[in-house]
Amino acid sequence: MPVAGTAAGPTRSSSSSSFSRQNNLPARYLVFDSRFTTDGHFARLNDDRILLVTFRRRGKSLLARSQDLDSAQLRQIRVPTSTGTRLLTVHKQTVPLRTYRGSPRQITLLRGPHRRPAFLITNNFQASLSQIMRLYACRWLVEQSISE
After folding, report:
1. From CA 95, how far away is CA 66, in angstroms rounded?
2. Per-residue CA distances from 63 to 10, 49, 57, 58, 110 (Å)
3. Beta sheet of 84-94, edge-to-edge order
């Protein structure tokens, strides 16, 4: 189930549109698992002006392109955690998606030489890289607590 949030904090909703209608407020962001959606759904959420954050599916071509990232464009960011901060290496760019008007922001998280990179995708261009990483981390914590 996605985690939606407003300025007041996160709430759970099965659909961003129903969340908006039920509360008579626009959802501020929607954080969800990309396995449950398509590029067309991304486009509809964007058209509804709902900010979204999700992991992108790792295909072979996406993984291959991550090997060719320009090291001069890699950034180190500090993300606050419950025990301090964590230093992450990231790369940001805009990428085209089928059926999506415009190009969403893709954040590639490089996780060391022995782990595959992770790819976040968002239509939020105002939030910092650290804020985007924290938004998704909140969703991951909810998923982790449900599975326990």
Report:
1. 13
2. 32, 30, 10, 6, 11
3. 9-12, 3-6, 29-32, 51-55, 118-122, 105-110, 84-94, 75-81
* The one-letter amino acid at 28: R
pLDDT 10s digits, 49-103 = 888 888 888 888 888 888 888 888 899 988 877 788 888 899 999 988 887 888 8
Task: Report the predicted TM-score, pTM, of the whole model to 2 decimal places.
Answer: 0.70
CA dist list (Å): 132 to 98, 100, 114, 136: 23, 20, 24, 6
Tokens of 47: 């058209």
Which residue, chain included where needed, has tokens 């938004």?
A: 135
Q: Are 51 and 5 in contact (CB under 8 A)?
A: no
Closest CA to 46 of 131, 142, 123, 118: 123
